[in-house]
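Notebook entry, structure prediction.
Reason for the run: the old model in the group folder had no record of what sequence produced it. Starting over properly, with the input documented here first.
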Amino acid sequence: MWWQALLSVLHDLWCFAFGLDQITTNSTTAEPPVLRLSVPTDNPAVSLYPNIRYATDHPETVLIRTYLREYTSVPPLAGDLTSLEWLGFLFDRSGRSLPWLVLKLTPIGQWHQTLKDVPSVQVGTTPKSHSLMEWQDSTGKGHLAYVAKVSPDETIVTQELGVLLPGVITETTLQSVQWQAAQPVFISVL
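New structure, fully documented this time:
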């Protein structure tokens, strides 16, 4: 199935090269292009829950992909909902943007390196609600989770899509000592 991702990236690059997407750039600085999408108010609310498989025909997957198809130039992928689709939807609906075309080419575990110089992004070691937590496990595999909640004692609740099963969100509560052992980087988008 790698060829579907390759075709999607090639389509993105083609649209970018010919100005057929909705990318805006800041002409006064050399910052990377950023997808800035309008957030329609008439779209139905989408809620995803842990331990449910969001397959191709799941109603929430259909809604997310319809949104991505209608408000971005990037065609959604086939199969189960992917982490990139889910995060892109979450961030766009909250009015925050990231350079998704570049991130599609960046391995998970290295996003913080790509994003560290983007003006609307803060990269650090302090967890914040509604940020991304990125780390590498003992085998060097990169992980990316959405930080749903941070408690005053620095206990965090994270959500990862597709880590145990494709299309399934895994929600994990980590005590401060647990997440600090992973030596994560937190990516906040303003």
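Summary: Confidence is low (pLDDT under 50) at residues 17-41.
The old model has been moved to the deprecated folder.
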